[in-house]
């Protein structure tokens, strides 16, 4: 895999690390500058390397600002454990979607209600929310359909815990901590996902490979390139929010 196709967060870290390595080399060679010049140099190198690594413009802007931000916080007496705590909280809440470039946001109550008509009312039916966030759709549908079974898969530990606690009262709902890519869809009748444009081609390939004919795939808002959905159901929420439905 080429470095330029790495997730942006890894490319951004690489650019900063390479820039820093250049500064360390210059110090070793005996160069001496005022601190602000070093910071400026780090920013310039990070921007240059980020462009080379094909990072999008908003990431390049963040790369330029980051060294100045670090410098500004340098002298501030913030205990080191706060940085660690912040890092851990971010990793626990958002870590699962970081590398697959899927942020945490939620389907609206209206989307949950529209899902009701898209999930057949059939005893024994298996529904999966791939990347279930805080478990809203799973908890809602499991309450209304006691005869069906509902699976939520979530990769971020804290997010998973919230969904797990939320679905605890539902005997027909299960929330699994793990990757949607390691979830076998062979027994799933209706798979639902609200992710981002990035994983859609790979997810569609997985759906086609693993789900049985007669199954249904629902994507909240994100299209599958080149695949026209059989139904589109607008939902309230952010602009362009809709449920795209494919019958397999
Ligand atoms: C946009 S939220 C959707 C939440 C919920 N499905 C809904 O409709 O309200 C996407 C979730 O997918 C999770 N996620 C991202 N990549 C994942 C992966 N590879 N495996 C499991 N979960 C993942 C993220 O952590 C995030 O909680």
UniProtKB/TrEMBL annotation:
Gene3D superfamilies documented for this protein: Vaccinia Virus protein VP39
Transmembrane residue ranges: 12-31, 37-56, 68-94
S-adenosyl-L-methionine recorded as keyword: yes
Entry keyword set: Membrane, Methyltransferase, S-adenosyl-L-methionine, Transferase, Transmembrane, Transmembrane helix
Keyword Transmembrane carried by entry: yes
Superkingdom assignment: Bacteria
InterPro entries: FAM173A/B (IPR026170), SAM-dependent_MTases_sf (IPR029063)
PANTHER family assigned: METHYLTRANSFERASE DOMAIN-CONTAINING PROTEIN
The protein's name: Class I SAM-dependent methyltransferase
Organism the protein comes from: Geothrix oryzae
